[in-house]
Amino acid sequence: MTDSDVTISMFERIGGSATIDRLVDRFYDRMDTLPEAKMIRAMHADDLGLIRDVLKRYLTEWTGGPRLYTPEKGHPRLRQRHFGFAIGDAERDAWLLCMRGAMEETVTDGAARQDLNKAISGLADWMRNRT
Ligand code: HEM
């Protein structure tokens, strides 16, 4: 095996935990303030402190970084965990508006941002549970 065979994870491509921390903080700041995100903000607890920490742990693991989510929370079963919230096209779009803005601000590598956007948009699509 040569060096070129080593796969670089998305976690490394975007700049590791420093970037994930900023990304998630900007994401919830946007959710907390954008008028377009009001309906998804209302689904969340008043205090966003806890969920900031959980999403940081989840995204760290999902992008190929350290396993900070599963050992504590068990298998993600993310779609099931969202069944309690009515998520249709409008909610997905609001979520992605916050996430894409946060990515623009925090993920400086354009190619990595494009790939991450593609993967996370697929995940947001899959999270819909209402037509
Ligand atoms: C598509 C629209 C989405 C909406 C409206 C939404 C909404 C929510 C809400 C209301 C919660 C509960 C928050 C709380 O406990 O206060 C939650 C939890 C969570 N969401 Fe989403 N979400 C969406 C998509 C996503 C996507 C795409 C991801 C992953 C990239 C994600 C990751 C998570 C995680 C990790 C949790 C915590 C689950 C746990 O308890 O372990 N969500 N979401």
Automatic annotation (TrEMBL):
Q: Which cofactor does it need?
A: heme
Mind telling me which Gene3D superfamilies this protein's record contains?
Globins
Keyword Nucleotidyltransferase in record: no
Record has Mitochondrion as a keyword? no
GO terms, molecular function: heme binding; metal ion binding; oxygen binding; oxygen carrier activity
InterPro entries named among the record's database cross-references:
GlbO/GLB3-like (IPR044203), Globin-like_sf (IPR009050), Globin/Proto (IPR012292), Hemoglobin_trunc (IPR001486)
Q: What is an example of a Pfam family matching this protein? A: Bac_globin
Q: Could you name the domain of life of the organism this protein comes from?
A: Bacteria
Write the record's keywords in alphabetical order, separated by commas.
Heme, Iron, Metal-binding, Transport
Query: Which CDD domains does the record match to this protein?
Result: TrHb2_PhHbO-like_O
Q: Which PANTHER family match?
A: TWO-ON-TWO HEMOGLOBIN-3
Family listed: Belongs to the truncated hemoglobin family. Group II subfamily.
Q: What is this protein called?
A: Hemoglobin
- Annotated organism of origin: Bradyrhizobium sacchari
Species classification: Bacteria, Pseudomonadati, Pseudomonadota, Alphaproteobacteria, Hyphomicrobiales
